[in-house]
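Can anyone check this?
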Amino acid sequence: MLISKIPVGSIMVFKLSNSDEVIAKIVEYDDKDFIVESAFVLIMGQKGMQFSPMLIMAEPDSKVTINRSNIVARCPPSKTMLGAYEQATSAIVLPSKQGIIM
């Protein structure tokens, strides 16, 4: 079986056995677990789909361990999801409209 190496620092989407989809940054991993940070799930909010922390009661900067036996599938996020994730996890706020500010 060919198993590709995933670079530490990669953003990945995980489909879990409970049907949740999680997007997170990989901090480290071994043959039993993925340790991730900034783990989010999509929820329906008042303004449409939005990110919510995977573990709501955990400290915001906590690292989360996801056991490989609970992962059904994993893949890189789409460009749209990656952009939304980077915006949600970045301290830099991007303007909603490009142009010259006067």
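Reply from J.R.: I decoded it. The chain has a mean pLDDT of 89.
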